[in-house]
């Protein structure tokens, strides 16, 4: 974990901005081939609905006319938040490290979900010994720590992976997500906060107050509208790592499945810089955390599933992988009208 050493050669924010100015686009040739083949397969046009859109999306971002979902990776980033000390979660901050141990010994939900799809599950620990600063009193991180965490996240997008599922573990990260969303897209604590792990009533009112305190503290910075600066000020290490992973996946032609509220909020930093920066990402589900629905609207994403889940850990991203596998299987494996001797549509 020397990604956090001040001497490491992580790109600066300026270098990240340069990468963002020159993002690769979709492979239009692969996309055109998919669209053409869809018309030849033995089904009425459009009858596979969103599966057809997914096949096209996979091909466009993998840069291959035959989309492949054989080597999914699940990357879960764990981080510690200073704001957790303000009592914004139903659980104490030490649960983050305890859950990392649980991931490593196979006892968490994500272990079962990853096993059920034969995915390569990796846990990426940020600096769990040193929580970020409490962002109601100052910036959560400086630029170096943020950029180092982004660089660490970039390592998850290794060549050979077909699809990258992203998720997080970090007590208080629905507070971080809500604050970051309000900073990026406007609104107040009440607009973006929800129960997270289960805070209700007075505890939820306190969570909202904490978010509003943070928004008031960083008012001048928020007015500058610099998404990377906001990621540093009111984000967290695992948020920066997820943003880095999304960016590296784009460069490496790996489509991405985003998980719930915290994960989508992290990726939304890139959307706030360039509204096409998440075109290679799909949001796996609509989290039961209410802020997620608002966020999905802000970034123009239609989630794949709506299962009432609110766990994090990349759980819903893992759950959505079979939909991508099904889309690729139909597209690649179905017979054409000519091959099967099936009559095509009446003239
Ligand atoms: C045992 C346990 C396992 C989890 N796995 C994911 N989260 C989820 O809950 C946390 C966010 O909610 P909040 O903002 O309310 O703290 C994150 O760690 C998230 O990944 C968990 C939370 C707990 C308690
Ligand atoms: O949607 C999420 O990411 C989420 C919701 C509640 C708790 N932790 C994560």
Describe the 3D structure.
The chain has 347 residues and is α/β, with parallel strands linked by helices. The chain has a single domain (13-340), classed as Nicotinate-nucleotide-dimethylbenzimidazole phosphoribosyltransferase (CobT), large domain (Rossmann fold), CATH 3.40.50. It is 50% helix and 7% strand. It is built from 16 helices and five strands. It has helices at residues 13-21, 28-40, 50-62, 95-105, 109-116, 143-154, 173-185, 189-192, 201-217, 219-224, 227-234, 237-251, 261-273, 290-299, 315-333, 337-340; strands spanning 72-78, 120-125, 163-169, 256-258, 281-283. Strands 2-1-3-4-5 form a five-stranded parallel beta sheet, with helices on both faces. Helix 13 links the parallel strand 4 and strand 5 (281-283). Helix 6 (143-154) packs across helix 12 and helix 7 (173-185) runs antiparallel to helix 11 (227-234). It is elongated and about 70 Å long. The protein starts with 12 loop residues before the first helix and ends in a 7-residue tail after the last helix. Residues 1-7 have low confidence and may be disordered. The structure holds alpha-ribazole-5'-phosphate (RBZ) and nicotinic acid (NIO). Alpha-ribazole-5'-phosphate (RBZ) binds at residues 89-91, 95, 99, 168-175, 196-197, 311-313.
Beta content: 5-15%
Low-confidence stretches: 1-7
CATH first level: Alpha Beta
Rounded to the nearest angstrom, the radius of gyration is 20 Å
SSE sequence, one letter per element:
HHHEHHEHEHHHHHHEHEHHH
Q: How are the strands of the largest sheet arranged?
A: 2-1-3-4-5
Helix content: 40-55%
Main beta-sheet strand count, sense and barrel state = 5 strands, parallel
**CATH-wise, what's the superfamily?**
Nicotinate-nucleotide-dimethylbenzimidazole phosphoribosyltransferase (CobT), large domain
End-to-end span in angstroms? 64 Å
Please tell me the overall pLDDT: 96
What is the SS-derived class?
Answer: alpha/beta
- Basic shape: elongated
Helical stretch count? 16
Bound molecules: alpha-ribazole-5'-phosphate, nicotinic acid
